[in-house]
């Protein structure tokens, strides 16, 4: 087991005493209870992996281990190997740059999405931007708010009016997001703006390729819409003649 390491953030100097904020107070208290009263401290390198990042990574390993039944050490070993292979360089969690650590966290999160492994969504904070998250939830079919896989519906953020035929929608023209039944209802109850303010994401427009591979539309449907647009445009032009 690695020895506990803390990160202290300078707060203020009061007389001859210095105050720091600590990133893991519980672990620190545990060490105090064990009788530790002296600690080594040295200035941290801003560019190196932070304790908070390391914690996110280990939390993800734990989630994956719990779900798959693989030992945490195995999970760690395999994912590090895979990642090293991808980036074509050695990778160590004890000694890597902050930037590389962020890349690794993203890699592990995308791994979880790909294999439908539930994980604590806190890992995504400051790591996966909202747009990417909306995309991953669309592709891997889970609610963008709560991660649920039940009763999923694709929401059009730019609301499709009541009169519109839901089966005749050109998905290419809409910002889309995957929501469970509960959050889809909430979206319509509180409205698009309040919903985006509350959950901090917007739907995204997907590429034709993604729309096809998600089977939201067929190539034939796309072609039909394009024909329709062409006709409308021609009609519009002849009116102006
Ligand atoms: Zn939900």
Write the layout of secondary structure elements.
Layout: E1 8-14, E2 17-22, H1 25-33, H2 51-68, H3 72-87, H4 98-114, H5 130-139, E3 153-156, E4 176-179, H6 181-190, H7 192-199, H8 208-213, H9 219-240
Antiparallel strand pairs: 1-2, 3-4
Bound molecules: zinc ion.
Zinc ion is lined by residues 143, 145-146, 148, 179-180, 182-183.
Features:
9% strand; 241 residues; elongated; binds zinc ion; 3 domains; mainly alpha; 9 helices; 4 strands; HNHc_6; two-stranded antiparallel ribbon
Describe this entry's structure for a reader.
With 241 residues, the chain is mainly α. The chain has 3 domains: 1-44, no CATH class; 48-128, no CATH class; 130-216, no CATH class. The chain has 9 helices and 4 strands; from the N terminus they run ββαααααββαααα. A two-stranded antiparallel sheet has the order 1-2. Strands 3-4 form a two-stranded antiparallel ribbon. The site of zinc ion has 8 residues, from helix 6.
Mean pLDDT across all amino acids: 88
User: What is the helical fraction, as a range of percent?
Assistant: 40-55%
| Rg over CA atoms | 24 Å
Number of strands: 4
Q: What count of helical segments does DSSP give?
A: 9
**Alpha carbon gap, first and last residue:** 80 Å
Overall spatial form: elongated
* Stretches with pLDDT under 50, minimum 5 residues: none
Q: What small molecules are bound in this structure?
A: zinc ion
Order of helices and strands: EEHHHHHEEHHHH
Alpha-beta classification: mainly alpha
Strands of the widest sheet, in order across it, are: 1-2
The main pleated sheet reads as: 2 strands, antiparallel
| Strand-residue proportion | 5-15%
Overall tally of structural domains: 3
